[in-house]
Structure formats: C-alpha cells, structure tokens
C-alpha cells in the first residue's frame, strides 16, 4: 500500500469479542438476552429510563474487567504507519481502541464513557452509574443525563467526516461486523464507488460479504495482526 494511501477502517462488536465483550447477533449475543426495543431506542428510554440506565451501567462497569486484544493493538500500529490519511470508524461503544493507542477514531454509535444531557446538550466523560435523577454537571438539572449512545432510529455521529473519508479512500477494511445495521453496512458501497480496494476481516461471512473485493475469515486477534503486518511490510 503506497505511503500516499488513504485508509478507512470500520470495526464492529466482533473485534471486541475476544476481549470478553459480547457481540449482539451471535449465538447468545446481547440481543438474544434483551429486546433492543427496550434498551436501544428513544421509545424504550421514554417508557422505562431506569431499565435503560441499568443496561448501560452494567456495560460501563464491565469495561473495568476487559483489555484490548491483538486486533486493537494492530490497528493502533497501522495508524502510525506511513499513510497520508487514516480514519478508524467504530460502531462499538467500548474504549478498547483508545486503550490500545488509536487516536484517529470516530465512535459513530457514541461511547459508554460519555453521558449526554438532554436538557442542555452538554456531553460529559462518565465512569460511574447513571440513574434517573443524576444531575447534569453543566446545567445542574436532575434527571436529564442519558447514555451518550446512538439508538435505533437516531442519527449516528461523525457522518460528514466518515463519508468524506470514504469518498477519497484507497483502502476500506471492515472488521468484526455482521453488516446488519445502516448506515455502517453501506460504507463499503461508498468506498467501492471511490475506487477503493475493499476487505472484510470477520469470523464468518457478513451480510454484505459479496460486496468486498477481498475477504479473510477467522478470529480478529489472529487475522487482523496478520493483515496489518502484510500492509506494513508490503507483503
Ligand atoms: P436499522 O434499521 O438500521 O437497524 C435495525 C436493526 O435492528 C436491523 O438491522 C437488525 O439488525 C436489528 N434488529 C431488528 N430486529 C431485531 C431484534 N429483534 N433483535 C435485535 N436486533 C434487531 O435501525 P434504525 O431504526 O433504522 O436505526 C438506524 C440508526 O440507529 C442508525 O443511525 C444506526 O447507527 C443507529 N443504531 C444504533 C444502535 C445502537 O444500539 N447504538 C443500534 C442500531 C442502530
Ligand atoms: N473475530 C472476528 N469477528 C467476530 C468474532 C471474532 N472473534 N466474533 C464475532 N465476530 C463477528 C460475527 O461473525 C459477526 O459478524 O462479529 C460480528 C458481530 O456482529 P453483531 O453482533 O451484529 O455486531 P455489530 O455488527 O457490531 O452490530 C452493529 O448493531 O445493535 C447495534 O449498536 C449496535 O453497533 C452495533 C450495531
């Protein structure tokens, strides 16, 4: 890959699976245990905010017990490689990419480590639990802080930046995502229209596997470091 190359990487829950964070749609995944309509939609939050806060409180607490794996570290190393443009887009709301050293990172579905005030719109780094009456540090009103996570039906973050990077990229690599949810599932189409080489690195073929020019299937902690080594050594 020439040093002048522009690279966009997309990751999904599968890259964090080997770090011990459940995926959504695999056997025994999160959506087989809880209905996404109850905990990942604005309607669910309006119906039962306590249930939603607790769902994300449990996932936020879980971050303390997990570590980035070799796939996260490989992407941080790739970012430091000799490329003109690099953007890592993640659908994940965990902080494993940051903890592995990634910096050029866009959390399109938000972050467990951030809370959003629906009264004043301020975002706050957040480590602890959220309840129905947690006051906002900025406007001091109680009961308006929600998880800073993009729910079904809401618009993802960073879309202008992501679409601009896709429209000029030479290489698009999709890692650990089932290709179920738009707009992320459509990124490969934008990259192909830009003439980019498109690669899927996933445990098994995703919904959109036929759209990719190259596909490697296996565990992210094995196939991602191997793929990155090839890019960095020109092999
Ligand atoms: P969508 O149509 O893009 O996705 C709906 C998805 O829900 C389907 O692709 C399917 O995978 C999933 N789904 C449907 N029935 C399900 C079930 N019973 N159990 C589990 N999953 C099920 O969603 P939308 O309502 O059009 O919203 C799209 C927007 O929501 C996008 O902006 C996307 O980024 C955002 N989003 C956020 C989250 C999140 O939890 N953070 C999840 C999905 C979508
Ligand atoms: N290595 C590589 N890929 C893996 C591994 C692994 N060890 N384990 C699982 N996978 C793959 C699965 O084969 C699957 O294709 O990761 C993918 C996980 O798919 P999903 O569970 O659907 O997760 P994701 O694609 O990230 O979901 C997208 O949906 O519910 C929303 O907001 C949520 O961001 C999420 C979005």
From TrEMBL:
<dbReference type="GO" id="GO:0008270">
    <property type="term" value="F:zinc ion binding"/>
</dbReference>
<feature type="domain" description="Deacetylase sirtuin-type">
    <location>
        <begin position="1"/>
        <end position="234"/>
    </location>
</feature>
<feature type="binding site">
    <location>
        <begin position="91"/>
        <end position="94"/>
    </location>
    <ligand>
        <name>NAD(+)</name>
    </ligand>
</feature>
<dbReference type="GO" id="GO:0070403">
    <property type="term" value="F:NAD+ binding"/>
</dbReference>
<dbReference type="InterPro" id="IPR026590">
    <property type="entry name" value="Ssirtuin_cat_dom"/>
</dbReference>
<comment type="function">
    <text>NAD-dependent lysine deacetylase and desuccinylase that specifically removes acetyl and succinyl groups on target proteins. Modulates the activities of several proteins which are inactive in their acylated form.</text>
</comment>
<dbReference type="InterPro" id="IPR026591">
    <property type="entry name" value="Sirtuin_cat_small_dom_sf"/>
</dbReference>
<dbReference type="GO" id="GO:0036054">
    <property type="term" value="F:protein-malonyllysine demalonylase activity"/>
</dbReference>
<keyword id="KW-0808">Transferase</keyword>
<dbReference type="InterPro" id="IPR027546">
    <property type="entry name" value="Sirtuin_class_III"/>
</dbReference>
<keyword id="KW-0862">Zinc</keyword>
<keyword id="KW-0479">Metal-binding</keyword>
<feature type="binding site">
    <location>
        <position position="120"/>
    </location>
    <ligand>
        <name>Zn(2+)</name>
    </ligand>
</feature>
<comment type="similarity">
    <text>Belongs to the sirtuin family. Class III subfamily.</text>
</comment>
<feature type="binding site">
    <location>
        <position position="220"/>
    </location>
    <ligand>
        <name>NAD(+)</name>
    </ligand>
</feature>
<dbReference type="GO" id="GO:0017136">
    <property type="term" value="F:histone deacetylase activity, NAD-dependent"/>
</dbReference>
<dbReference type="InterPro" id="IPR029035">
    <property type="entry name" value="DHS-like_NAD/FAD-binding_dom"/>
</dbReference>
<keyword id="KW-0963">Cytoplasm</keyword>
<feature type="binding site">
    <location>
        <begin position="12"/>
        <end position="31"/>
    </location>
    <ligand>
        <name>NAD(+)</name>
    </ligand>
</feature>
<dbReference type="GO" id="GO:0036055">
    <property type="term" value="F:protein-succinyllysine desuccinylase activity"/>
</dbReference>
<feature type="binding site">
    <location>
        <position position="117"/>
    </location>
    <ligand>
        <name>Zn(2+)</name>
    </ligand>
</feature>
<feature type="binding site">
    <location>
        <position position="136"/>
    </location>
    <ligand>
        <name>Zn(2+)</name>
    </ligand>
</feature>
<dbReference type="InterPro" id="IPR050134">
    <property type="entry name" value="NAD-dep_sirtuin_deacylases"/>
</dbReference>
<dbReference type="Pfam" id="PF02146">
    <property type="entry name" value="SIR2"/>
</dbReference>
<protein>
    <recommendedName>
        <fullName>NAD-dependent protein deacylase</fullName>
        <ecNumber>2.3.1.286</ecNumber>
    </recommendedName>
</protein>
<keyword id="KW-0520">NAD</keyword>
<dbReference type="InterPro" id="IPR003000">
    <property type="entry name" value="Sirtuin"/>
</dbReference>
<dbReference type="GO" id="GO:0005737">
    <property type="term" value="C:cytoplasm"/>
</dbReference>
<feature type="binding site">
    <location>
        <position position="59"/>
    </location>
    <ligand>
        <name>substrate</name>
    </ligand>
</feature>
<feature type="binding site">
    <location>
        <position position="139"/>
    </location>
    <ligand>
        <name>Zn(2+)</name>
    </ligand>
</feature>
<feature type="active site" description="Proton acceptor">
    <location>
        <position position="109"/>
    </location>
</feature>
<feature type="binding site">
    <location>
        <begin position="176"/>
        <end position="178"/>
    </location>
    <ligand>
        <name>NAD(+)</name>
    </ligand>
</feature>
<feature type="binding site">
    <location>
        <position position="56"/>
    </location>
    <ligand>
        <name>substrate</name>
    </ligand>
</feature>
<feature type="binding site">
    <location>
        <begin position="202"/>
        <end position="204"/>
    </location>
    <ligand>
        <name>NAD(+)</name>
    </ligand>
</feature>
